[in-house]
């Protein structure tokens, strides 16, 4: 029963991540997602993260960033190309331009890169899981 619960939870994460990334199930099958999840687990262990101490939120974000990064590398994820050239057609005239950055964006390019966000979250998770928590009283 525990294995079935884990599989159901993984399937829920799979569905949520596909929805957030605007990806269809045909583009990333559940079996492919499981393979990427195993790769993510191996990557985290190799980088020194104690995965048994991660919260659901950490696991979800790590998976989201990792899958986003991998799909972006493979060219499957194109919805989040923030530096692409936009095209507008006005009657017979076609204009290509880079969209101007929004005034509220601070370091926008860096914020939207799944791979950078994944690396930062892995480093943060490593610190959180490797730094022992001390509870005590000092006299």
TrEMBL record:
InterPro entries: DUF3890. Pfam families: DUF3890. Residues 5-67 form the DUF3890 domain. This is DUF3890 domain-containing protein. Keywords: Plasmid. It comes from Candidatus Borreliella tachyglossi.
């Amino acid at each position: 029963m525990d294995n079935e619960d884990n599989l159901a939870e993984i399937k829920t994460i799979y569905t949520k991540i596909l929805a957030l990334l605007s990806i269809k199930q045909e583009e990333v099958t559940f079996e492919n997602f499981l393979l990427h999840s195993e790769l993510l687990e191996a990557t985290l262990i190799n980088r020194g993260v104690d995965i048994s101490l991660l919260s659901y939120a950490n696991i979800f974000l790590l998976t989201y960033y990792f899958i986003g990064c991998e799909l972006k590398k493979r060219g499957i994820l194109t919805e989040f190309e923030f530096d692409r050239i936009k095209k507008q057609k006005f009657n017979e005239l076609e204009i290509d331009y880079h969209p101007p950055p929004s005034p509220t964006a601070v370091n926008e390019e860096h914020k939207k890169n799944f791979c950078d966000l994944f690396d930062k979250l892995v480093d943060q998770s490593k610190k959180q899981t490797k730094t022992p928590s001390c509870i005590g009283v000092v006299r």
